[in-house]
Design goal:
single chain; mainly alpha
C-alpha cells in the first residue's frame, strides 16, 4: 500500500458516491482519481489500465460538459436507457475490444495478465461512455468491470485497490437501483392527461417531458448512441 494509492482510493469512493447522487461534482473528483491511477497502474505494469486512465481524462471532461449542457435547452439531460439490441451491441464492442487490446499487450509488451486486464479496459470504456451520456445501463457494465478488477488487482498485490473495487461493486449495484428509481419518477412525470383542444393549439410543438431527449433518439446500438 502506498500513499498515492490510498489518496486515489478516497477520490474513487467520493466519485462513485457523487455519481449515484447524479452530482456534477463526480466529474472533477473522478478526474483527480484517474490521473493518480494512471501512475499507479504504470508502475504495476498494468499498461492497459494505465492507458485506460488517459482515455478516462478525455471522457471525464466530455461527461462533465454533457451533464451540464447535454439536455434540452442546454440543461441537465435526463436518464436514458438502452434496449436489448443496445445492450447486446455494446457487449460485442467490449468483447472485441478486449480481444484486440489483450492481443496487442501480450504481443508487444510485458504486461501482466494481458487479456484479463484488457477486458477490464474495454468494459470500462463502454461503461464510462454510457455514464457520460447518462445511460442507465452503465451500471450493469460497471458491475462486470468491478468483478473482473477485483481478481486482477488482487493477483497484482494491489490490495487497497482490490478493496476499493469490492466497495465499487456494492456501490454499482446501489447506483443501478437508485437510477432506476429516478427513471421511474421521470416516467411518472410524463404520464399526464391529453391536453384540451385549446391548450393543444396554444402549446409549443416541443415536448415538456423530461424523458424526451432520452427517448426521441435511439440508443439501440453503439452507432446510434454515439450519434446522439
Amino acid at each position: 500500500m502506498t500513499a498515492i494509492e490510498l489518496i486515489a482510493t478516497v477520490f474513487g469512493l467520493a466519485c462513485v458516491a457523487l455519481t449515484i447522487r447524479r452530482s456534477i461534482w463526480c466529474w472533477p473528483t473522478g478526474l483527480v482519481q484517474v490521473l493518480l491511477y494512471a501512475w499507479i497502474f504504470y508502475r504495476a505494469k498494468l499498461y492497459s489500465d494505465a492507458l485506460l486512465q488517459v482515455v478516462y481524462v478525455v471522457l471525464q471532461i466530455y461527461g462533465w460538459y454533457y451533464w451540464l449542457r447535454g439536455g434540452p435547452v442546454e440543461d441537465e439531460p435526463p436518464i436514458a436507457k438502452l434496449g436489448r439490441a443496445g445492450r447486446a451491441g455494446w457487449s460485442v464492442v467490449a468483447a472485441a475490444g478486449a480481444l484486440a487490446i489483450g492481443w496487442a499487450m501480450a504481443r508487444f509488451t510485458d504486461a501482466a495478465l494481458p487479456y484479463w486486464d484488457a477486458a477490464v479496459v474495454a468494459l470500462s470504456l463502454v461503461a464510462q461512455f454510457l455514464l457520460s451520456r447518462k445511460v442507465l445501463e452503465n451500471w450493469l457494465f460497471w458491475i462486470v468491470v468491478d468483478v473482473l478488477a477485483i481478481g486482477v488487482y488482487a493477483a497484482k498485490d494491489l490490495y487497497v485497490t482490490t478493496v476499493l473495487y469490492a466497495v465499487f461493486l456494492a456501490m454499482a449495484v446501489a447506483g443501478w437501483f437508485a437510477w432506476k428509481r429516478t427513471d421511474r419518477r421521470q416516467a411518472t412525470q410524463c404520464e399526464s392527461p391529453a391536453p384540451s383542444p385549446v391548450r393543444a393549439a396554444d402549446s409549443s410543438s416541443a415536448s415538456s417531458c423530461p424523458r424526451t431527449a432520452a427517448t426521441s433518439s435511439s440508443l439501440s446500438s453503439p452507432a446510434s448512441t454515439s450519434s446522439t
